[in-house]
Amino acid sequence: xxxKGYIYVLCAAALWALIGPISKLSISLGVSPLETAFWxxxxxxxxxxxxxxxxxxxxxxxxxxxxxxxxxxxxxxTMFAANVLxxxxxxxxxxxxxxxxxxxxxxLLAWLMLGERMNSNKLVALGMTLAGVAxxxxxxxxxxxxxxxxxxxxxxxCGLIAGFSYATYYIFGKRYLGRYATPTLFxxxxxxxxxxxxxxxxxxxxxxxxxxxxxxxxxxxxxxAYSVYYAGLRVLSATRTAIxxxxxxxxxxxxxxVWWGERFDTAGYIGSALILAAVLxxxxxxxxxxxxxxxxxxxxAA
Length: 302
Fold this sequence. Notes:
By secondary structure, the protein is mainly alpha-helical. The protein is 77% helix and 1% strand. The chain has a two-stranded antiparallel sheet. A hairpin with a 2-residue loop joins strand 1 (143-144) and strand 2. Helix 1 (2-16) packs parallel to helix 12 (247-260), helix 7 packs antiparallel against helix 13 (266-301) and helix 8 crosses helix 11 (238-244). The protein starts with a helix and ends with a helix. Mean pLDDT is 83; it is low at 143-149.
């Protein structure tokens, strides 16, 4: 069961790795960053609305409405907008790595709010993850086909805000997945996010290619990624899920290199290797922890 959870999360990471490249494509086709964020949420909502209708998963309890609305503000509007603004300012490769300050926030929030254990495996994996993020984001600058790109502070700040907002997905999911299906959660959270972004969007004419990029962005990185990710979160701890999903910046950076010619310096590649190592360490540590828990349970039963 745990292995299936890891596979789901890794699939989500692969889909989320497309956020930077496809968003950058939409922007290059004349769609503004905030309009890109808006349509990613709006078109994604259509997919979830159809899913929720077909599966009759649209009912929520009134007492949970404020939490769903808050998630729409922080997890959708803030994260989508900050992430795409970071992409437009510092490039897809750096933005996707800055997003992955999230595991540090998740570990703290899961410990404070969910009562999850902070064991040595998680601490080591978190340390490796944070070291990897530091190597990538605090190195010189991302190199593009035109040479070194200038790293601006607003772009880095937007990336860090996106990382903090992203952390709420793990905590919110763990708290509410036991009550609701994934389509139900996003059926209500995504419209709230759209309404928050809407006042800041200047809508412009779009080519068929631009519309296609927006539809693909929503289908893969919103509907597809969140569906498989939350399937994994049902069977894995919040902290462990967050660390495994850090495979996303490695994949995202690779796609940005192939698609847009973005690449890192030596420190950036070392950081990517550290992140990948943290993912593998987490999986190995999870198996050992599961074996230990099973042995303790058997001993107690005896």
